[in-house]
Each structure stands twice: as C-alpha cells, then as structure tokens.
Amino acid sequence: MAKRFECPECGPIETALFDGYPLGGRQLEGVMFRGKIVNDKIELEYVDNPNTGYLKGLNTEYWLKEMKKFISKGTDMAQCSNNNCVEDIDIIDD
Q1: For residue 53, with 0-12 CB atoms within 10 Å meaning exposed, 13-18 middle and 19 or more buried, which class applies?
Q2: How far apart are alpha carbons 66 and 88 in whole angstroms?
Q3: Separation CA 78–CA 61 (nearest Å)
Q4: Mean pLDDT, all residues of the chain
Q5: How big, in percent rounded to 5, are the helix, strand and coil portions of the chain?
Q6: DSSP H or E stretch at residue 11
Q7: All structural domains of the chain with their residue ranges
C-alpha cells in the first residue's frame, strides 16, 4: 500500500499542510506544519509564518515532535500546499 496526497483542485501533490489546532487548540491555531510522504510515512517540518509574531515564544521543537506523534495516529485533516490553493486534501492509502 502506498500513501499519497491528492488535492481535488490540483491533483496529486508532493506536500500538504497540517494545522496545529487539532493538537494544541487555540495555542496552535494557524501554526502550520508541512508534511511530505517518505517511505510511506508522513514526515513533518514546522512552517515559519512571519506574520504571527506570537509563535516566537513557542517551543517549536517540542510541538513538531508532538505533531509527528499526532499525525502518526492517523488524520485526514490537511490542506493543499500549492500557492493560492486552500482546498482540503485527501490522504490516500492504497
């Protein structure tokens, strides 16, 4: 079985964005993590958003680790990472 990201607007995509809100509530609302599928697992990195100054106080290393654990349990909540596309995407495991 191979895992892949599929956007209804853009088709197959390499990376997807995951919002931290389901993990950290209001504290992580709008904090985005970019995911890429490597060896059939989703690898994450923190996406720095210069418009949200309050993120400077967060322990991003800790939250990245926690988000990796959260995603590894399974989720279908992600959005397209292509510029100007905000569609929710499908995480397909076939």
Answers
A1: exposed
A2: 22
A3: 20
A4: 83
A5: 30, 35, 35
A6: strand 11-13
A7: 3-80
Task: Kindly report the number of other CB atoms within 10 A of residue 7's CB atom.
Answer: 19
Element (H, E) at 60: helix 60-72
- CB hemisphere CA count around 81 (13 angstroms): 18
Longest dimension (CA), the chain: 41
Q: Is the C-alpha dihedral spanning 31, 25, 54, 72 positive or negative?
A: negative
pLDDT, tens digit (0-9, with 9 covering 90-100), for 4-33: 999 999 999 999 999 888 888 887 887 888
The token duo for 22 is 């389901």
> What is the phi/psi pair of residue 64, to 5°?
-65, -45
